[in-house]
């Protein structure tokens, strides 16, 4: 970075699901954050946050036209908050106990949005971070 970061309460490195327990853990809902575009296609000035319900891959596949693998997660439905244009690559996470402290752990990366077959709803598909943890750990440069 051009300037040094100063860690503050709301500026921290994100945690990854490195423990075996966190790699298989799925919550009923997750938090997604992003700076995506607003309804006027302008960038948000404030970081946006939404709570998204987890949808099983089987239900997501049945209601949409996408084939999912175990390396993906599906959220959304029910006309609740969702990701927007410009949110791709953003984190999907959850605040959980991590080595004795509450930390925000990243479980997914925003990949794409898909509509249901009937066009009445949308889902967000995420790349599942746990599926790539072995590679991430092997390639981290200390």
From TrEMBL:
Pfam families: Trypsin. GO terms for molecular function: serine-type endopeptidase activity. GO terms for biological process: proteolysis. The keyword Glycoprotein applies. Keywords: Disulfide bond, Glycoprotein. Residues 1-141 form the Peptidase S1 domain. Belongs to the peptidase S1 family. CLIP subfamily. This is Limulus clotting factor C.
């Amino acid at each position: 970075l051009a300037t040094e970061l100063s860690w503050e309460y709301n500026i921290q490195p994100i945690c990854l699901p490195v423990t075996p327990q966190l790699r298989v853990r799925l919550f009923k809902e997750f938090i997604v954050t992003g700076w995506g575009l607003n309804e006027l296609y302008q960038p948000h000035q404030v970081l946006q946050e939404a709570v998204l319900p987890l949808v099983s891959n089987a239900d997501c596949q049945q209601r949409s036209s996408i084939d999912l693998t175990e390396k993906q997660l599906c959220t959304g439905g029910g006309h609740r908050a969702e990701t927007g244009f410009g949110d791709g690559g953003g984190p999907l996470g959850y605040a959980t106990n991590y080595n004795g402290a509450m930390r925000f752990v990243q479980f997914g990366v925003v990949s794409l949005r898909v509509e249901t077959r009937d066009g009445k709803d949308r889902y967000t598909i995420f790349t599942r971070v746990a599926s790539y943890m072995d590679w991430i750990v092997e390639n981290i440069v200390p």
